[in-house]
Amino acid sequence: MKKALIEFCKSINIEHIGIAPSGPYEDLKEIWEKKIEMGFAHIFDKGSLDKMIYPDLTLEDAKSVIVCLFPYYCGDFEDANLSKYAYSVDYHITVINMLEKIGEFLKKNIEGFNYKAFADAGPLNDRYLAYKAGLGFYGINSHIITDEYGSYVFIGYIINNYPFEHDNPQDRTCLKCFECVKRCPGQCILGDFTINPLKCRSYISQKKGELSGEDVEILKKNPLIWGCDVCQDVCPHNQGIKKTELEDFKSNIKYRIDYEELKDVSNKEFLRRHKDRAFSWRGKGVLQRNFEIINE
Ligand code: B12
Ligand code: SF4
Ligand code: SF4
Fold it and tell me: Is 170 within the bounds of a domain?
């Protein structure tokens, strides 16, 4: 069945697929408890820690987790002011659609097959699953990195009740050149494969309301009004990589929002135009504020 699953995934352009065990993930629990101790956990809004460790709290008869990567690199644009992950239609939509295709295929081929598919907003830790499923290795910048597509890959997974044979993690990490640590605008890459998310420019660019003086200084260090790509752009694993083959991530690209649009268009109209984009979920006010801070 695993062979049939891999074949099916290839037929819909998913090259990176692996199987993670269905937990419990005791090693992740330790990492997470450390994060809570350091005061970094409250922004994640992840529901209960138990749900992250025990997949059977989400799917009662969970036996394995199918994990897939979705490459999204489609080139560099000199005058971009949005982050690469937000150039295309919102990846949550694309990834869930593709995972649902896999779920439907397995439902037709396995009696009693049951599953739940997630991307980003699910109960488990996406990077941990990709690591466990052998799909990539950890970078000091905390990303999951692949040889072909670098770290510009989204992660999605399907908790399911079929005991697919697990894959093994890759026994390697990134090159540890520490270029990401040196160049990070928030100086928040801690050197142990984790970051302080509260000082991450990506987080600050998505924060609502008035920013602290320190946050403003961090924001000013880079021209992107949404997200941050510095720790990926400088990484040697992201040089000379392949562009995505996925239609959704290479077509209908929007890498820049002009100030006139932010200033002159109502929030309602802005959302009508861009509601299928990852950069729009906080509304246009946050983008306008960022633009003004960065270009003052
Ligand atoms: C909250 C969140 C954020 C927060 C906090 C991020 C953070 N690093 O903590 C903010 C808003 C800052 C953020 C920013 C970004 N995010 Co984000 N984010 C998430 C989310 C929803 C939860 C992450 C989380 O729980 N973090 C807590 C820390 C402790 O966990 P972690 O970094 O995910 O993974 C750790 C564990 O797996 C652990 N670990 C476990 N086992 C092992 C084993 C070994 C050997 C090692 C070394 C480590 C290790 O170490 C990892 C590193 O800290 C995930 C999706 C999800 N539900 O998992 C996406 C996710 C991590 N984000 C993603 C992306 C694309 C981004 C941005 C690049 C967006 C942008 N361009 O602006 C930046 C990158 C910032 C960075 N350097 O991480 C992708 C990453 C894909 C990838 N290839 O790794 C994810 C997986 C979404 C997805 N489904 O594709 N994000
Ligand atoms: S996304 Fe930007 S601010 Fe966040 S860790 Fe990477 S380089 Fe630092
Ligand atoms: S820039 Fe260097 S240290 Fe940072 S993730 Fe890439 S290889 Fe690792």
Answer: no
Q: Which residue out of 43, 72, 76, 142 has the highest number of ligand 1 atoms within 8 Å of its CB and is therefore the one to mutate?
A: 142
Atom of ligand 3 nearest to the CA of 143: 5
Q: Are residues 150 and 191 in the same domain?
A: no
> Cα(227)–Cα(279) distance, rounded to whole angstroms?
8
SS3 helix, strand, coil % of the chain, rounded to 5? Answer: 40, 15, 45
Do 189 and 135 share a structural domain?
Answer: no
Ligand 3 close to Cβ of residue 235 (< 6 A): yes
Instruction: Tell whether 189 and 217 lie within a shared domain.
Output: yes
What's the chain's Rg over C-alpha atoms? 19
Number of domains in the chain: 2
The reported pLDDT for the residue numbered 296 is 85
User: Mean pLDDT score of the chain, rounded to an integer?
Assistant: 95
Domain match, 223 and 128 both = no
pLDDT band at 181 (very low <50, low <70, confident <90, very high): very high
* Torsion on CA atoms 24, 30, 36, 38, rounded to nearest 10: -160
Which of 40, 174, 222, 230 has the most ligand 2 atoms within 8 A of CB, as the residue to mutate?
A: 230
Are 195 and 132 in a shared domain? no
